[in-house]
Amino acid sequence: MIPAVYGESWTLKELMVLPNEFIYWSIQIVMYPFMTGLVAGSFILSSLYHLFGIKALKGVSRFALVFSLALLPAANLPPLLFLQSPERAHYIFITPHFTSAIAAFGLVVLLYAALVAAELWFIYRPYFVESEKALRAIPGLGLAGRLRRVLFGWLTLGARDIGEEALRLDARVVKILAAVGIPVACFLHGYAGFIFGAVKANAVWMTPLMPIIFIVSAVVSGIAFCILCYAGAMELRKLFLRRQFARRHPHACSLAEHRLAGIEEVEVRVASRYLAVFLLVALVLELLDVVFRGYTAMKSWDLLRQVVYGRDFFEIFVLQHGVGRLLPLLLLLLPGRTVKRTMAAAALVLVGVFMMRWNVVIGGQSVSLSAAGFMAYDLPVAPRDISAFKEGVAGALLVLGAPFVLFWMLNKIFPVFIVERAERAIKT
Amino acid sequence: MNRRTFLKDAIVVITGAALPAAALEWLDPRQVLAENPQIRWAFLVDTHKCAGCGFCVKACKAENDIPYEASVTRTWIERYVVTQSGELLADSPQGGRDGFTSGSIDLPGGTRVSEEEIIRGFFVPKLCNHCASPPCVQVCPVGATYATPQGVVLVDRQWCIGCGYCIMGCPYGARFFHPVHKSVDKCTLCTHRLTRGDASACVEACPFGARQVGNLHDPNDPVTRAVVSERIGVLRDSYGSRPRVYYLGLSKEVH
To answer: Given CB atoms, is B239 within the 8 Å cutoff of chain A?
Structure first.
């Protein structure tokens, strides 16, 4: 039996392509910057409230911060699914080779995780203290309740002072962490852009604009993702409230539901303004890259032109710029915007950002080093074998689904919505 | 002795003592040897002599345990045909392993070019360029790929994590994932043969003497003489990787 050559099953070669050339970086390397972008972007959205005090974003900012932590482990899944020897992944910490753009990535991710976790702890500390106190007050607590009490006790890390002075200090620390976090988040994703932008062997990737393009598109994707998920979660909460209320009062309207709708409307409106601004910047930067390459028309443009205007025209101009940039921009800017329309725009933005990653990673590899041939990527749909599972639709869906499971788990410790009630309880 | 003289003399003595101590610290014998090794391997390809027989590809696969049927290969031959209309056709089916026995170019539809139409036709053998500034070594995140003091770029199969960044970083398409070992693989210049005094397998297998391996630090080596005195070219010079595979008779169509 002929041993399978990596990449051969999903690479379609056209004209003169070198024998060792394949689409080596597949769907997981598309997912990797996509997920890292969501991490960085959602953190930056959360910082808008904590650092700049944009009060209208309070709810969505907490939501974004918890989601950022949930997304972080998921963002590390794609490289693990892609590595040929994942069991050696830790070598990157043992013998980091710092001339490589990937070498310090683990360290940056760890630093970032520590930052997000610290910020969350300072935000949720009063909640932990209150919850532990409340659970302690309940007589005859069951095993689950006792476990929760111990967990919350541990989570306070012994810092149980929730006096006014202590809370003010917490708020100041959160502000500092958010301020430090913004450059770290930009670095995290700019770094991902640098991984591609610094590959001199690849004409599509090699541009100093790449880290900047990556940072802006990360912010865009993070805000869009948080708007979509936050509004989605609020819609579900409203639905539950409506059902609950209708059972008791079939002919009346729920005040609580109206209150939620009000909060949702304000938060989504403010967040969508930021989304529109960053979306415009992203569009300008990405088009600037293409225009600049076309105008300077270096030797590599001969081939790039064929990719940009020919082979990948649909993916680049229709899906990435049209459906993923211009259409949502119109949806956001046209008068009479509703929450549902914003959600639709956010979903389209995510499609656009995903397509941008796809066009960079897959499109970037489609030009042969021979300068006389092309390669196309045939994404494995059915998980026929382990490789087709890991680097196919199934693997990508696994990576996409993971943060939601993690968010659900994290929400048990850092409740995104219940905390409003806890905060009110503390105040009274 | 007054204070002024004492201080003056003390400075002279301390400086004098510090200098040899610093020199001892700087002169690490291994470093000196690495910077001035007696051997610096280089490879010379005479494209005029290559007939595209594919013996080099076969020999390389057999010598270096690269599955024969697998399409990946440490060395390969490219065929170039320039027609009267100025069209350039190129192919490298199976890396030229089976020789270019057919007049038909291996492109969709099996492009057949009649002999009258051909203005120029030639073969270009390729392999890892064992660059003096290897981009692949620069981008490896764990240091699994490295350049030896003798100028050979190697991969530590036991340490490679298989991220493929070096494959992306190589401007020559010389790297691939080994189908069996699942780590990155590439030409080693047959270092195992060179260290015991033999030539690389492809050099030995070439019936036309189109491939030679030699020591750039030996002025009498035929490769060194050719590199110094002939009009030679290298591939993709603009990438700044300073390749050490030199070509005689390189054509502008070849990248």
So the answer is: yes
The model's pLDDT over A15-59, given as tens digits with 9 standing for 90+, comes to: 899 999 999 999 999 999 999 999 989 988 888 888 888 888 888
Q: Which residues of A touch B72 (CB under 8 A)?
A: 5, 19-20
Among A336, A280, A274, A349, CA closest to A60: A274
Residues A368 and A392 in one domain: no
Contact criterion met (CB < 8 Å) for B90 and A14: no
Contacts of A109 in chain B (CB under 8 A): none
Please tell me the distance from the alpha carbon of residue A401 to that of residue A412, in angstroms, as a whole number: 18
SS3 state at B19: helix
Residue A99 contacts B, CB cutoff 8 Å: yes
Whole-number Cα distances in Å, A144 to A131, A249, A336: 14, 34, 48
Give the orientation angle of helix A164-197 with respect to helix A339-365, to 10 degrees. 40
Contact between chains at A95 and B143 (C-beta distance less than 8 A): yes
- Show the low-confidence residues of chain B (pLDDT under 70): 20-37, 109-110
User: Are A171 and A299 part of one and the same domain?
Assistant: no
Does residue A158 sit in the same domain as residue A262?
no
Note whether A359 and A406 are same-domain residues: no
In a domain, A286, yes or no: yes
A21 touching B (Cβ < 8 Å): yes
A83 touches chain B (CB under 8 A): yes
A302 and B CB contact within 8 Å: no
Same domain assignment for residues A403 and A331: no
Cα–Cα distance list, B58 to A175, B67, B100, B129, B189 (Å)? 65, 10, 13, 19, 15
Residue A308 covered by a domain: yes
Q: Of the candidates A16, A85, A96, which has its C-beta nearest B183's C-beta? A: A85
Find, in chain A, the residue whose alpha carbon is nearest to that of B79: A16
| Cβ-Cβ contacts under 8 Å, B167 against chain A | 20, 24
CB atoms within 10 A of CB A190: 20
B255 touches chain A (CB under 8 A): yes
CA-based nearest residue in chain A for residue B183: A84
Q: What is the pLDDT of residues B72-117, one digit of tens each?
A: 999 999 999 999 998 899 999 999 999 998 878 877 766 778 888 8
What are the structural domains, with CATH classification, of chain B?
A: 37-75+124-255 (3.30.70.20)
Contact between A398 and A354 (Cβ < 8 Å): no
Contacts of B169 in chain A (CB under 8 A): 199-201
Question: If you measure CA to CA, which chain B residue comes closest to A205?
Answer: B168
A62-98 burial: b if 16+ Cβ within 10 Å, else e: bbbbbbbbbbbebbbbbbebbbbbeebbebbeeebbe
The set of residues, in sequence order, having a beta carbon less than 8 Å from that of A339 and lying 6+ positions away, is A231, A235, A264, A265, A268
Q: What is the ipTM of this complex?
A: 0.89
- Is B168's CB within 8 Å of A202's CB? yes
pLDDT recorded at residue A61: 87
Which chain A residue's Cα is nearest to B178?
A5
Q: Are residues A68 and A180 in the same domain?
A: yes
Residue of B nearest to A365 (CA): B168
- Any bridge partners for residue A373, and if so which? A15
- Residue A399 to chain B, least CA–CA distance (Å): 18
Q: Evaluate whether residue A223 is within a structural domain.
A: no
pLDDT of residue A428: 45
Same domain, A63 and A191: yes
Q: Which of B69, B140, B155, B161 to mutate to test the interface with A (most CBs of A within 10 A)?
A: B161
Query: Is there a single domain that holds both residue A31 and residue A73?
Result: yes
Domain count along chain A: 2
Inside any domain, residue A242:
yes
**What is the identity of the amino acid at A203?**
A
Domain of A90 in residue numbering reads as 23-198+385-423
